[in-house]
Each structure stands twice: as structure tokens, then as C-alpha cells.
Amino acid sequence: EANFKYANLTGAYFRDTDLSRANFKNANLSGATLDFTNLSGASFKDANLTNIEVEKNAPLEGLDFRGANLTGARLLGANLQGADFTGAIFRNVDISGAQIRNANFTAVDLSQTKMQKVSFTDAILCETIMPWGIEDSGCTKIEKAAPLDMDIPGF
User: Tens of pLDDT along 127-153?
Assistant: First the structure.
């Protein structure tokens, strides 16, 4: 249970590292790379994750990203099931191919997010800004949704 609370980890490179249950609250991981890293139970609440890269199909399920700044993050094919992104900043993020079942995107602006082959089935969209407008499905899970293939111009 490593404690990186408020740590400056700008440009850090983690590979084959066990960071399970690590606390990255308010940490600066701008430009960091996480390859084959165990992050189960980790918290990135209010962390700076700008331009972070994780390996394709990274297991990030159930993690706490509330209030985190993910501007420019590349989360291609990541398993984000059950992750909580409430209030997170999502500018120019690429979540193409990500698994987001049961993920919480309450009060998140996804209008400039690249999301090819993404299904919002069972995702929580409450006051969520999508490319087509504000999604507020009664602030409940979307029971069934078709896969989304969005290519945002200029991305």
C-alpha cells in the first residue's frame, strides 16, 4: 500500500510494478507511463494524469478517478469497468476500445473524447456532456446501448 499522496511523479515510468491499493491522491503523474502494472484498488482521486499512457487493455477496473485531470490521456482498450470518474476532466482523452460497463461518468465532459468501439451499456451518465449534447438519463445506468464509434474532428 504505497502512499504517493501529493507526490510529484512527472514523467515516471512504471513497468511490472505492484501498486495495488496505492494512494495517488493529488499526485502529479503528468506524462507518466504505466506498463503491466498492478493497480487494483489504487486511488487517483484529484490526481494530475495529463498525457498519461497505460498499456493496451490495462486492467483499471473499479479504480477511483474522481476529480482527476486526464487531459490527453491514452487509455486504449483499457478495462475501466466500475471505475468512478465523477467530476474528472476528460479533454482529448482516447478511450477507444475501452470496456466501461458500470463506470461512473457523472458530471464529466466527454465531448472531446475519442471513443471508437465503446459501449456505454450500464455506464452511469448523469449531467454528462456527450458529443451530441448533455446526457442525463435520470442519472441512472444506461441499460442497453449500442456501441459508439465517434471520431471527433481535429483529434
Answer: 888 887 777 665 655 544 444 555 544
Closest CA to 45 of 66, 29, 30, 59: 66
**2: closest CA among 27, 23, 17?**
23
Say if CB 79 and CB 100 are below 8 A apart.
no
Partnered with residue 109 across adjacent β-strands are: 129
The closest alpha carbon to 55, from 39, 74, 83, belongs to 74
Dist CA 79 CA 69 (whole Å): 19
Integer Cα distance of 94 and 132 in angstroms:
17
Helix (H) or strand (E) holding 116: strand 115-118
Dihedral pair phi/psi, residue 84, rounded to 5°: -110, 110
